[in-house]
Amino acid sequence: MLNDSTNLSDDSSDNSDQKKIPCVNVGEKRVGLFVTCLVNTMRPSVGFASLSLLEQAGCKVEVPEAQSCCGQPAFNSGDDEGTRQIAYQTIAQFEGFDYVVVPSGSCAAMIKKSFIEVLKEQPEWLARAKRLANVTYELLSFLVDVCDFVPEGVELNGSYTYHDSCSGYRSLGVYEQPRKMLAKVSGLSHKPLNGHSECCGFGGTFCVKYSDISNEIVTEKADNILDSNVDFLLGGDMGCLMNMAGKLNRDGHTEIKALHTAEVLAGMTQGVIEVKNAGK
Questions:
Q1: Topology (CATH) of 151-265
Q2: End-to-end CA distance of the chain
Q3: Cα distances (angstroms) measured from residue 7 to each of 30, 63, 203
Q4: Contacts of 78 (CB under 8 A, 6+ apart)
Q5: I need a labelling partner for 20 at 20 to 30 A (CA). Which of 120, 256, 273, 274 fits?
Q6: pLDDT digits over 8-34, tens only?
Q7: Which has the minimum average pLDDT: 20-24, 161-165, 239-243, 266-270?
């Protein structure tokens, strides 16, 4: 993982059920950063960008070393027992934090909603899963809704369009938050994306099991991105970004650079050329 669990600070379904906790004393709270598999293995810069943003917002951040996958591949494949085993580990790793923050709507939704589903027959673990769900946030929603964070002094010249991931948009209600912060980035202008909230075709194991369908979906998404005539494709989920960037790159459209929103907001786009290809 990015680091161990030492204090690093010292060196759409309606989501209205999640309370917005006042940000007055966020700096006094312990924030556990759930890095996610794709960030850790494919794009660590997103993890470091997330850490930087949380620290800028005044948070006391820790990254538990023993964290692993959120369990989504197992869950989507119908392996409830495997998902439960992962849920046990994740709950034990993170339930001691005041907040848990995830730079992925997909993984955050897994912790907030799917853990509760697979543990519904186990009262003790269900209670623990619900407590964890109540303090778990997708990164961008946490920065805006809890920390009231506004990035300062960030510059990126060019135009961008934004893809809203299925889980972030539908399960967690993440929409205004990234746009609010990106509006503060000097030199960056927004262009709308037709079908901004429609699936990109990734869907974790979906793109492997149903590759033909996945390719049809991402082809339409790529066409819409090209029609937007932008320099950057931004989003909050690495899986989606990898899938869309992979399609664009394979079709020769390397002029559009795919970036995680955290990288932009943290000013960590220097040297980032493109998201690695993935999917069909």
A1: Rossmann fold (3.40.50)
A2: 27
A3: 9, 8, 34
A4: none
A5: 120
A6: 333 333 443 444 444 445 667 899 999
A7: 20-24
State the alpha helices, DSSP H only, in the chain: 37-42, 44-56, 72-76, 80-94, 105-109, 115-118, 123-134, 139-141, 166, 176-182, 206-209, 211-228, 238-250, 261-265
d(CA 196, CA 169): 10
Q: Which two tokens stand for residue 267?
A: 């000013």
Q: Which residues contact 55 (CB under 8 A, 6 or more apart)?
A: 8, 9, 61
Q: What is the pTM of this model?
A: 0.85
Cross-strand partners of 21: none
For the chain, the domains span 26-145, 151-265
Fold of 26-145: Glutathione S-transferase Yfyf (Class Pi); Chain A, domain 2 (1.20.1050)
